[in-house]
Design a protein that fits this description.
This protein is mainly alpha-helical. It has helices at about 1-15, 30-45, 65-80, 95-105, 115-130, 145-150, 200-210, 225-235, 265-270, 275-285, 300-305, 320-330, 335-345, 355-365, 370-385, 390-395, 405-415, 420-435, 440-450, 460-465, 465-480; strands at about 20, 50-55, 85-90, 110, 160, 165-170, 175-180, 190, 215-220, 240-245, 250, 315. Helix 8 (about 225-235) links the parallel strand 9 (about 215-220) and strand 10. The radius of gyration is 32 Å and the shape is elongated. Mean pLDDT is about 90; it is low at about 1-15. The structure holds one RNA strand.
Amino acid sequence: MKALQRFESSRLRMNYPIVRFAPSPTGYLHIGGARTALFNWLFTRKHQGKFLLRIEDTDLERSEEKYIDQIISALDWLGLDHDGDYILQSNNLSSHQAALDQLLAQGKAYRCFYSKEELDQLRLAAEKAKKPFRVPTTYRDLSQEELNKHLQDKKEFTIRLKVPEGETRFEDLVFGNITVQNREIDDFILARSDGSPTYNFVVTIDDADMKITHVIRGDDHLANTPKQILIYEALSLPVPTFVHLPMILGSDGKRLSKRHAATNVQEYKEKGYQPKSIINYLSLLGWNPDSNEEIFSINEIIEQFELNQIQKKPAIFDEKKLNWVSGQHLQKSSIKELIEAIKDLDLTWAEHHSEDFVKKLLLLLRDRSKNIQDIIELGNIIMSNPSSYSQDELHNIFKGNNFEVIENFISGLEAEEFTQSNIEQLIDNISIQCELSLGAVMKQIRFAITTITYGPSLVEIIILLGQDTIISRLKKFVQHST
RNA sequence: GGCCGGUUCGUCUAGUGGUUAGGACUCAGGGUUUUCAUCUCUGCAACAGGGGUUCGAUCCCCCUACCGGCUGCCA
């Protein structure tokens, strides 16, 4: 019977995983957190499980309400939707207390009357003697009488777990079998002297209460896992499956921190990266599908995602590759999609232009941009009438301030019908007349019209902006520069 | 110090007891293009080191080095 139950429950857990992402609201959602959230999310979306969001707000000193909103909106922007409302860890205090009482009552935890200062001294002494420090188990098995005496003295105490003899082993889905000798683990603290429960304890209780089947988190928690397993076991709670993800590092190979370029998800939104690009790139960090393909839609990633293909070694976040991924996705994006993404960043962009104009402009910009911000900026340059020119470039491009090309171009445009073939013909003629290469002629015209020397096809820009705008810009340019 | 992990081009990675160790990004060069970008072609570039096991190790075992985590009344 029991075996059958175990079988049933493991089957259930296989089919309907419940996972959680558990950020603490002490800062913005950063790239590393986003990756953890993503892998949790991918796993549940693939297996029709539940992706829960738990806000670990028990560090009252550092937690801030505004960060909760920011984390949620960043996840939302990425499209990593969680199931149900988010859960506040601070709402589960009574369960933490109950578990603590239970462990105490069952003699699986005990009150330890060492003060922090005493322990610090012992720790220091051990260090000096180059011996490994162990918390003494002096108070582990006090008689009721001794215990009462200490309590009557109002002596402060912490609550520690009685770590049993033996070893603790588990199979991590990424790192494989891990075994730790329990004698390497101190009777660690479950509750501080002010009664508040510690991280390892709270996480365990919450995960159990939320019926988490797969704990997917950063590998900085790998070494905490045996402790948490000891807590599950002390409380006879089912132990979830653990999946530790290798860290994401900065370009210097160190843990991602403020020192690195951009770590905040919000910054990538502002820079104009699309969520699908971020997700595609992040998914490739530490994971890869069984193919040489690298550009995927989100659904394709979900389809192919497997936890057991995750890498063990940490990965460095490479903005150059992100740019490439982003450019690839941009080229696949529809005009409608681009317009929406642009509006997200800048509501006033191209507001005085017709829908048709915007479409044609985006068609010109899409293939040469890495992100939405690139499109906005290049577009702005093309759309706005120049107010000033770089003098250095101007002298460089117009040797001896000779504006013959521009003047000829203006009179040519005024004389002919404004069509693509006429304009091309005109440029050809000027090239011959002025004895300049086609490239040199176009460079001069491009610069006069847009102030820059790069960008989409010149003739297409001219057609798009229209005869009046072009002639007026060229005339102003000549006035300005002579 | 102790414990637990990790290590394939600069970066992300594939891979196998016998391979010219594959792909992608970056970089360099060529082609396409009016420019820039795209696209395309070519090139540079890696099994951390040392011992074993083996006919043969990048792959299996051990040691070393380096990196990371834990060793907190932080999370």
